[in-house]
Amino acid sequence: MADIVFNxxxxxxxxxxxxxxxxxxxxxSSVRFLxxxxxxxxxxxSCYSAVDSSYSEERxxxxxxxxxxxxxxxxxxxxxxxxxxxxxxxxxxxxLDQGWSDQQxxxxxxxxxxxxxxxxxxxxxxxxxxxxxxxxxxxxxxxILILVIKSMTKNRLINDRLQKVNPSKKQVSEYSxxxxxxxxxx
Length: 186
Fold this sequence. Notes:
The chain is mostly helical. Helices cover 67% and strands 0% of the residues. The N and C termini lie far apart (149 Å).
């Protein structure tokens, strides 16, 4: 039995699984698999790069969407290709690198270009009316629509009742004859 245990490596060498040093042989398909695994791991790690700067692209993009280009009416600096908009995008990146908050950056642009530079008007002061009036108008419009629909259905019901009571021509002529007889009597 001892011969069998000691002869196992020689059996494996003979059948091609181990080389003469006793190390396991690696097949070509295993080597290819390992190379592909290392390659895809390297690509995945290289694509996932940590942002070294203090600002994130996502935050800069969100701010770019909230600031309006002063030259292009109705366009954010994210959409505009005007040189001023490009310069404003760079200012946002610089301010984010310096650690400024979103509100500080918005205030910076409001100081230079006025409150109209923000795509969303501030919800305070006179601008509060802009936020309150549209929902109130929508609510009133819905209420008026409901009242109009109710009155239309009510009028239809009344018309349906009148049509049920509506006498025929023969009944009307008989009634008018009776009225004439009553009127003609002295």
